[in-house]
């Protein structure tokens, strides 16, 4: 029993985690489109003032039930739905209904639609017989020459529109798969054998089944060396060569390929033995004679390639083998239900090929399937209602009678909005017809057309889906009520001097004001309210009682910003203790309740900050100076230097419980107080406090310490002496500077006297005895003439 209780608790806890994760995912979305595309559980409230009267605003993106509980009047919650575009009843040539639908899908929210399929009567059949023509199949070739007429008669019970074709295969005509030396070929090859080939289309699909026997009369067996054959390479050509083989379009006929062989097969990678390394490219390479020509270019295909192409082309394989039946049954199992593949044993001479084909076809004809070719981001799941069977998770119905109707419940879900705004469609494919599915993604709200400069947005922004979108360069705020600069300033939304995040991480800053997160249930299933100027407070962060209840529960107290406010009957950090009645324990000896520094609760003093003690009598922080408290009483009682009257003096002394005083010659140094009175005199005192009676006795030193009167004569003489001193100092400085200057001049004179420098002098009024004149006629060559001297 204990184990199941633990499991139940874990499941409830996981459910809570999933629920809160969904709520959180919704609450983080800020626009309507982001909201509805994030989760199918999210919805958007278009109310403009969504609980504006409270300190907080409700989240516009939230669960539908939350919006309903909070009385949102306009909830935007689009739901996925389907619309039938084209639907015709299943009569006549109509085999699938509806024929076209439109799905409006919200991401991660599925919608369902019923697809009805009716197996048609007389449905056309294209049957291609692909045979191993190696030497070991000699007797089988002879046996099936009359197969055309027999199959035509047997298939008449199923359909009147039957076509038959024939092709053969052996292997790649190169070593080591076959003989390539002339002498080996001459020794091993029997007369009438044809050379080795990969694949030949002998008879394209034809309604004239007599051609089948005629063609086979001219077909001979061939030869090869190794055991595996090139059946997969031939099968790939049969699948992809639609025009050459003559396949009718998909949905117009059942396409069936019968592969008869007695050997295993070569597959991708085996071509390396013959030097063929390029992977098979899944294309048709038949020449006009129907012969496969790319055997030396491409490797054998893989089983996965064959499976993919068969399903794509709605080709149904029937493996009829005279050996290795278990292997081919594994191959059919690998191809899966979607391919319709069948594998069965064939007699050594193919004598049972007709009943084998008929039985295999009956199994195929009784199978109805459906598949989707949806693109990435769109998931499709099917449930099948097959006849009278119960609904099951499957895309197949087996053992369905011709003309019987089956229903496929189709669930479609879009994983995200990657295709939003694009024309998206896909098909639901059945063997008989397709259903066109158009997809519209619901990733945008239908309220996105904005109201320009709405009055609800202070005429500064556009209103869309009940939300204001402000001009970001100019305005901000929930209603564009402040400037962009004010909106960016988040200083007021942070606790002063704290490194805590904006609004304590529990709100958003709206124009300098914290808008706290709305109330929601916490992990204890309690409704948590966030409040405070910086959203720093919560009603669930207080101490819890031993019952894990905040403040002991609502009947004991309330949580106020981290501290319990208990009711009158309870006390303690978490209101866990009952109160004592009365107030007698709150009064001190003087009859004062809690010394005036607290309140009485539960017959105990609750002191204000900074005080402790039974009666809040002791100050521990920001305490007043006792010397300052007692100074006035000393002045008025002992020295009579206070401005207080006698009555006022007694009141002042009684205020501090001063009952007496004594005067002594000298006050001891411990707890010594020094104060100054109006006479500018200092007085010394101390105090003795009785902690029992809370009374004070003052001990005052008898004599005050007053400053002496100033000596006027000394002051005058000092001023005169100062003036004389300054004059003498200035005189000495001048004399010192003059002496220094004289010494410099004398030193310069002595230096010039010891180093004389004489120069020639000339009388300024002296005039030379000779004069020089120049003949103006010889001005061009004055340098050749002798000057005229007188």
UniProtKB/TrEMBL annotation:
A Pfam family matched in the record: Integrin_b_cyt
Transmembrane domains' residue ranges: 712-734
Family annotation (SMART domains): INB, Integrin_b_cyt, Integrin_B_tail
Integrin beta subunit cytoplasmic domain sequence ranges: 735-780
Membrane-topology descriptor: Single-pass type I membrane protein
Signal peptide: 1-22
Gene3D superfamilies named among the record's database cross-references: 4.10.1240.30, Cytochrome c1, transmembrane anchor, C-terminal (1.20.5.100), Laminin (2.10.25.10), ntegrin, alpha v. Chain A, domain 3 (2.60.40.1510), von Willebrand factor, type A domain (3.40.50.410)
Disulphide bridges: 32-42, 241-284, 386-397, 443-447, 465-503, 470-480, 482-493, 509-514, 511-551, 516-535, 537-542, 559-564, 561-594, 566-575, 600-605, 602-649, 607-616, 619-623, 627-636, 633-706, 653-681
Keywords: Cell adhesion, Cell membrane, Disulfide bond, EGF-like domain, Glycoprotein, Integrin, Membrane, Phosphoprotein, Repeat, Signal, Transmembrane, Transmembrane helix
Superkingdom to which the source organism belongs: Eukaryota
Integrin beta subunit VWA domain span: 31-445
Alphabetized GO MF terms: integrin binding
GO CC annotation terms, alphabetical: cell surface; focal adhesion; integrin complex
Domain spans labelled Integrin beta subunit tail: 627-711
Major location category of this protein: membrane
GO biological process, one term: cell migration
Entry keyword annotation includes Protein transport: no
Annotated spans, Disordered: 771-790
Subcellular location: Cell membrane
Protein family: Belongs to the integrin beta chain family.
Protein name: Integrin beta
């Amino acid at each position: 029993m204990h184990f199941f209780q633990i499991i139940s608790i874990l499941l409830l806890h996981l459910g809570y985690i999933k629920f809160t994760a969904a709520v959180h995912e919704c609450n983080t979305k800020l626009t309507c489109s982001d909201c509805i595309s994030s989760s199918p559980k999210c919805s958007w409230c278009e109310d403009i003032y969504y609980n504006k009267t409270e300190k907080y605003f409700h989240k516009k993106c939230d669960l539908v039930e939350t919006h309903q509980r909070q009385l949102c009047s306009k909830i935007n919650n689009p739901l996925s739905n389907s619309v039938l575009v084209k639907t015709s009843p299943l009569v006549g040539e109509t085999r699938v209904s509806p024929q076209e639908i439109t799905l409006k899908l919200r991401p991660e929210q599925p919608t369902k639609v019923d697809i009805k399929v009716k197996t048609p009567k007389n449905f056309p059949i294209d049957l291609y017989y692909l045979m191993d023509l190696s030497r070991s199949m000699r007797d089988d070739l002879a046996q099936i020459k009359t197969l055309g007429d027999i199959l035509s008669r047997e298939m008449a019970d199923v359909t009147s529109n039957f076509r038959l074709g024939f092709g053969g295969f052996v292997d790649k005509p190169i070593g080591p798969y076959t003989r390539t030396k002339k002498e080996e070929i001459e020794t091993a090859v029997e007369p009438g054998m044809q050379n080795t080939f990969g694949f030949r289309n002998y008879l394209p699909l034809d309604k004239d089944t007599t051609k089948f026997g005629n063609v086979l009369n001219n077909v001979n067996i061939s030869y090869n060396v190794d055991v595996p054959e090139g059946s997969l390479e031939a099968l790939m050509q049969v699948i992809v060569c639609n025009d050459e083989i003559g396949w009718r379009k998909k949905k117009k006929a059942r396409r069936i390929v019968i592969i008869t062989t007695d050997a295993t097969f070569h597959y991708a990678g085996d071509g390396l033995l013959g030097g063929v390394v390029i992977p098979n490219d899944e294309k048709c390479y038949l020449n006009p004679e129907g012969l496969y020509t790319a055997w030396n270019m491409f490797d054998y295909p893989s089983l996965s390639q064959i499976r993919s192409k068969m399903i794509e082309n709605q080709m149904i394989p029937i493996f009829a083998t005279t050996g290795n039946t278990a292997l081919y049954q594994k191959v059919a199992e690998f191809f899966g239900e979607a391919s319709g593949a069948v594998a069965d044993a064939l007699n050594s001479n193919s004598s049972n090929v007709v009943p084998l084909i008929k039985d295999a076809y009956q199994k195929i004809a009784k199978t109805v399937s459906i598949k989707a070719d949806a693109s990435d981001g769109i998931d499709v799941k099917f449930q099948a209602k097959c006849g009278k069977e119960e609904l099951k998770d499957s895309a197949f119905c087996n053992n369905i009678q011709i003309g019987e109707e089956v229903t496929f419940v189709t669930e479609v879900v879009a994983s995200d909005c990657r295709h939003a705004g694009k024309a998206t469609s896909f098909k639901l494919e059945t063997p008989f017809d397709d259903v066109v599915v158009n997809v519209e993604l619901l990733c945008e709200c239908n309220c996105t057309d904005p109201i320009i400069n709405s009055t609800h947005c202070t005429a500064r922004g556009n209103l869309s889906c009940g939300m204001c979108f402000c001009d970001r360069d100019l305005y901000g705020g929930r209603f564009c009520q402040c400037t962009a600069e004010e909106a960016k300033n988040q200083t007021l939304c942070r606790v002063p001097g704290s490194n805590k995040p904006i609004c304590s991480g529990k709100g958003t800053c709206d124009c300098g004001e914290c808008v706290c997160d709305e109330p929601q249930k916490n992990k204890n299933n309690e409704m948590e309210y966030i409040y405070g100027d910086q959203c720093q407070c919560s009603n669930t962060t207080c101490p819890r009682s031993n019952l894990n209840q905040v403040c002991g529960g609502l009947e004991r107290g309330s949580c106020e910003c981290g501290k319990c406010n208990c009711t009158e009957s309870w006390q303690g950090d978490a209101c866990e203790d009952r109160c004592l009645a009365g107030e007698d324990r709150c009064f001190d000896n003087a009859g004062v309740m809690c010394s005036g520094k607290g309140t009485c609760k539960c017959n105990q003093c609750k002191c204000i900050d900074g005080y402790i003690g039974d009666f809040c009598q002791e100050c521990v922080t920001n305490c007043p100076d006792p010397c300052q408290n007692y100074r006035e009483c000393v002045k008025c009682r002992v020295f009579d230097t206070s401005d207080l009257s006698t009555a006022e003096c007694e009141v002042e002394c009684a205020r501090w419980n001063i009952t007496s005083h004594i005067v002594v010659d000298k006050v001891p140094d411990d707890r010594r107080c020094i104060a100054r009175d109006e006479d500018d005199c200092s007085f010394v005192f101390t105090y003795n406090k009785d902690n029992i009676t809370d009374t004070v006795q003052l001990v005052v030193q008898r004599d005050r310490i007053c400053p002496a009167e100033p000596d006027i004569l000394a002051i005058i003489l000092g001023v005169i002496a100062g003036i004389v001193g300054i004059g003498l100092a200035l005189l000495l400085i001048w004399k010192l500077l003059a002496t220094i200057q004289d010494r410099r001049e004398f030193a310069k004179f002595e230096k010039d006297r010891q180093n004389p420098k004489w120069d020639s002098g000339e009388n300024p009024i002296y005039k030379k005895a000779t004069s020089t004149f120049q003949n103006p006629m010889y001005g061009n060559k004055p340098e050749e003439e002798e000057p005229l001297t007188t």
